[in-house]
């Protein structure tokens, strides 16, 4: 008998592939228009972790898996993307000297990040 996670894994993978090919947002990828491997890796990590749950939790893992598919379809969960924002194009953040003095210096680092 197949794992109850098999259908959500396939659905998630197909959804990621379809969305990226349709949007054309990955034109500069090594294989144009196809998702980055990190997107598939995130699916493998999430569903691989769910597959490690004991057999008695198969139904719960399946429900959570389908929830991830729905979250991806609604753009709540974006596989392969991080939630980290950068300070690109803005002035650098300066750490006050009072904060820097509390930490040992590392090869002459300054307060500018």
Mind explaining what this structure looks like?
The chain is built from 4 helices and no strands. α1 runs antiparallel to α2 and α1 (6-23) runs parallel beside α3 (58-73). By secondary structure, it is mainly α. The protein is 47% helix and 0% strand. It is flat and about 60 Å long.
In short:
The chain is 47% helix and 0% strand.
Q: What general outline do the C-alpha atoms trace?
A: flat
By DSSP, the count of extended strands is 0
How much of the sequence is in beta strands? under 5%
SSE string, helices as H and strands as E: HHHH
Distance between the termini: 54 Å
Low-confidence stretches: none
Which oligomeric state applies?
Answer: single chain
Report the mean per-residue pLDDT as an integer. Answer: 78
Q: Indicate the radius of gyration in whole angstroms.
A: 21 Å
- Helix fraction by DSSP (H/I, runs of at least 4): 40-55%
What count of helical segments does DSSP give?
4
The major beta sheet can be summarized as:
none
The class by helix and strand makeup works out as mainly alpha
């Amino acid at each position: 008998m197949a794992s109850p996670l098999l259908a959500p894994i396939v659905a998630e993978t197909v959804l990621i592939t379809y969305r990226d090919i349709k949007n054309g947002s990955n034109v500069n990828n090594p294989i144009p228009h196809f998702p980055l491997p990190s997107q598939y890796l995130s699916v493998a990590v999430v569903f691989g972790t769910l597959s490690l749950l004991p057999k008695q939790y198969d139904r719960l893992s399946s429900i959570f898996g389908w929830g991830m598919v729905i979250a991806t379809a609604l753009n709540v969960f974006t596989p392969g993307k991080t939630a980290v924002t950068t300070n690109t194009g803005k002035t650098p953040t300066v750490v006050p000297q009072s904060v820097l003095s509390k930490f040992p210096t590392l090869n002459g680092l300054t307060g500018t990040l």
